[in-house]
């Protein structure tokens, strides 16, 4: 039961409709509805009475509302306490980023910039090894990474978890799709178009191992079929002999010949961690970290 879910529930109750809550939270209406539905499934009770004119809370919903507000108030107090202990503030955050950021993290950074107009976030696109090196050298303040660094040198927080689907040619997708999506082993014989292993070695190896366990040849080359330019990737996919992993919130426009499809049973989960030096006392970094939603370590 994350802070983001409690915040969404409070917004729905206070705004009176799911659509108004979505506008308040910068989220889509389906995303807010799914969040509240997830809360009801977790608790095993109905929290809201829904109608064409809006929502009303049940007795259980009123009880949760009171506790949720108390939890968020305590969280805000905790953040203020932590930030007060941080002594450094430069007004600039140097942020290392991977090849692609989840939409939720982009929204969090955008909200942070809006809420802190005097702060500048300078993003730097770097592979993981370079991010770690720059964090050690003091050239980066915080990084977003696909894998958890080893040891106690850095503090970390899991900030995103995505069930990945695949991009492939539309005609091919029509042949392979079932009622629950495309099964990974049905992609045997197709080329995997991946990102360079140097960007995040452990994440790349995890993908390759998952593919091999489903009977898919990942090739003999170190980085698979790697195309870092989206237009080149989409051209290769259009040919109908390849596939690529992607979030449903794929940021690039898709040509008519390429589609996104979910993977049955969600066998591929991509995680993103916020990483910063353990000895950091930078107040700006503390504020940015507080802007991200914490994710539980175990899959939902």
Name a few traits of the molecule.
D-Maltodextrin-Binding Protein, domain 2; 41% helix; Arc Repressor Mutant, subunit A; 300 residues; five-stranded mixed sheet; single chain; 3 domains; alpha/beta; globular; Probable hydrogen peroxide-inducible genes activator
Structural commentary:
It is a single chain. By secondary structure, the protein is α/β, with parallel strands linked by helices. The protein folds into three domains: 83 residues, Winged helix-like DNA-binding domain superfamily/Winged helix DNA-binding domain (Arc Repressor Mutant, subunit A, Orthogonal Bundle); 99 residues, D-Maltodextrin-Binding Protein, domain 2; 109 residues, Periplasmic binding protein-like II (D-Maltodextrin-Binding Protein, domain 2, 3-Layer(aba) Sandwich). It is 41% helix and 21% strand. It is built from ten helices and twelve strands. The strands form three sheets. It has a five-stranded mixed sheet, with helices on both faces. β1 and β2 form a beta hairpin. α2 packs across α3. The longest helix is centred in the first third of the chain and has 27 residues. The protein is globular. About 2% of the residues have low confidence.
Count of helical stretches:
10
Taken from the alpha-carbon principal axes, the silhouette is: globular
* Main pleated-sheet profile: 5 strands, mixed
The chain-level mean pLDDT equals 84
Beta-strand fraction estimate: 15-25%
| CATH fold-level topology of the largest domain | D-Maltodextrin-Binding Protein, domain 2
Terminal-residue CA separation:
10 Å
Structural class: alpha/beta
Please state the second-level CATH architecture of the largest domain.
3-Layer(aba) Sandwich
Instruction: Assign the CATH superfamily of the largest domain.
Output: Periplasmic binding protein-like II
What oligomeric state do the depicted chains represent?
single chain
The helix/strand series, from N terminus to C terminus, equals HHHEEHEHEHEEEHEHEHEEEH
Tell me the total number of β-strands: 12
Strand order of the largest sheet: 4-3-5-12-6
């Amino acid at each position: 039961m994350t802070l983001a879910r409690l915040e969404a529930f409070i917004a729905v109750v206070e705004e009176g409709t799911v659509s108004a809550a979505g506008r308040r939270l910068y989220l889509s209406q389906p995303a807010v509805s799914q969040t509240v539905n997830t809360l009801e499934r977790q608790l095993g009770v109905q929290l809201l009475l829904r109608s064409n004119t809006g929502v009303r809370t049940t007795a259980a919903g009123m009880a949760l509302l009171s506790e949720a507000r108390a939890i968020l108030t305590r969280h805000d107090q905790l953040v203020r306490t932590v930030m007060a202990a941080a002594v450094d503030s430069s007004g600039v955050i140097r942020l290392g980023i991977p090849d692609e950021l989840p939409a939720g993290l982009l929204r969090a950074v955008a909200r942070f910039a809006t809420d802190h107009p005097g702060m500048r976030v300078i993003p730097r696109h770097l592979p993981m090894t370079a991010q770690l090196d720059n964090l050690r050298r003091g050239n980066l303040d915080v990084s977003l990474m696909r894998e958890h660094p080893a040891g106690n040198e850095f503090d970390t927080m899991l900030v995103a978890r995505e069930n990945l689907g695949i991009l492939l040619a539309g005609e091919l997708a029509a042949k392979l799709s079932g009622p629950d999506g495309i099964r990974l082993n049905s992609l045997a014989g197709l080329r995997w178009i991946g990102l360079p292993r140097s960007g995040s070695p452990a994440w790349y190896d995890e993908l390759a191992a998952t593919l091999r366990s489903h009977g898919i040849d990942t090739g003999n080359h170190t980085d698979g079929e790697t195309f870092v330019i989206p237009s080149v990737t989409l051209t290769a996919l259009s040919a109908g002999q390849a596939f690529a992993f992607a979030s449903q919130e794929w940021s690039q426009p898709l040509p008519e010949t390429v589609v996104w499809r979910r993977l049955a049973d969600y066998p591929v989960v991509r995680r993103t961690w916020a990483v910063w030096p353990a000895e950091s006392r930078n107040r700006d970094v503390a504020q940015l970290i507080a802007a991200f939603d914490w994710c539980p370590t175990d899959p939902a």
